[in-house]
Design goal:
The chain is an alpha+beta fold and 160 residues long. Helices cover 18% and strands 32% of the residues. The longest helix is centred in the first third of the chain and has 10 residues.
Length: 160
């Protein structure tokens, strides 16, 4: 029945400013009104709604105001530079400073590479790529650089 996630929504304080930010992420504007904009994440499959509202001042919590964008594993190697070239700073996450990201999340039996940043309203954004799925291995969170050295690889094997 369920095939994927079609839409997610975030509150923003200034729609015009947010539209410019999400265009920097190379998302395509799909629809816009005075207080709402939708951007295609993958055209015809998923989009992100931005709502101009006073709710943008709601304090961040992981259950609120967070969206993770899936990227290809090979793109994770260059994501930090790509974001920095667009003037988007990397945020510390899980005690890992920006210079130690992307990081590897040990969500056993899965492992994902991720990097974290924010939009102009402080909404938490993440780019994430699976490294291993359904593969039992216990390890601590580490940088992607450490993961690659440990596994002696650039692009990780084990994706099913």
């Amino acid at each position: 029945m369920i095939k994927g996630l079609y839409e997610a929504h975030l509150p923003v304080s200034c729609l015009k400013q947010s539209i410019e930010f999400y265009k920097k992420l190379e998302l395509e504007l799909a629809y816009q009104t005075d207080k709402l904009a939708f951007f295609w994440i993958k055209k015809g499959q998923s989009w992100l709604g931005l709502w101009e509202t006073e709710k943008a001042a709601t304090p961040y919590h992981p259950s609120l105001r967070h969206v993770a964008f899936q990227i290809d594993r090979k793109d994770m190697e260059n994501i930090k530079e790509w974001l920095e070239q667009k003037g988007i700073p990397i945020q510390s996450a899980f005690t890992f400073p920006p210079e130690k990201q992307p990081l590897v999340l040990p969500n056993n039996p899965n492992a994902h590479a991720a990097i974290y940043f924010q939009d102009p309203d402080g909404n938490s954004l993440e780019c994430i790529a699976p490294l291993r799925l359904d593969f039992e291995e216990t390890f601590d969170m580490m940088s992607l650089e450490e993961w690659n050295k440990r596994n002696n690889e650039g692009v990780t094997r084990g994706i099913k």
